[in-house]
Design goal:
single chain
């Protein structure tokens, strides 16, 4: 990919301001009673429009911007679909009672939190080669949350 080097131009600074403002509204969604998706989409669209405007007024090749946007969309969609599949996998495991059984086995043995730490670490060691690290973290955090409710 060709590096555009827009960070030190005016469009880079304005894009950074859009990002910070959007991030602020995402972080304070409860205060303003807005959905996180609205400021995220508004900031992202605004940044892309600013960069497109910058390309237009400076007579730059629009195909370069198009390739960069396509590259970003492919990256973002890859992350989205990975998380979608990981969460579907976890929901299927919840539906089949995997976490309830695991919780029952761990709680019924009366393990201390220190012992639970080591058991979940050992589980992570064996799950992570099969599942991705993020999926492993999601699975084990679900287990730990259900265990904490019982203790």
């Amino acid at each position: 990919m060709h590096d555009l080097h827009l960070a030190t131009t005016w469009v880079g600074w304005v894009s950074l301001a859009f990002f910070v403002i959007g991030y602020y509204f995402i972080a304070t969604e409860d205060k303003y009673r807005i959905n996180k998706a609205k400021p995220a989409l508004l900031a992202g669209t605004g940044i892309f429009m600013l960069i497109g405007f910058y390309f237009a007024i400076n007579g730059m090749d629009g195909h370069l911007l198009e390739r960069e946007i396509e590259h970003l969309i492919v990256e973002i969609s890859g992350i989205f679909f990975f998380l979608f599949v990981a969460m579907t996998y976890i929901e299927a495991m919840i539906d089949r009672g995997v976490f309830s059984t695991l919780r029952y086995n761990l709680v019924s043995k009366g393990y201390s939190y220190k012992k639970l730490f080591w058991v979940t670490g050992l589980l992570a060691f064996f799950i992570s080669p099969v599942a991705d690290n993020l999926t492993t973290a999601l699975i084990l955090s679900t287990v730990l949350i259900t265990i904490d409710k019982d203790k």
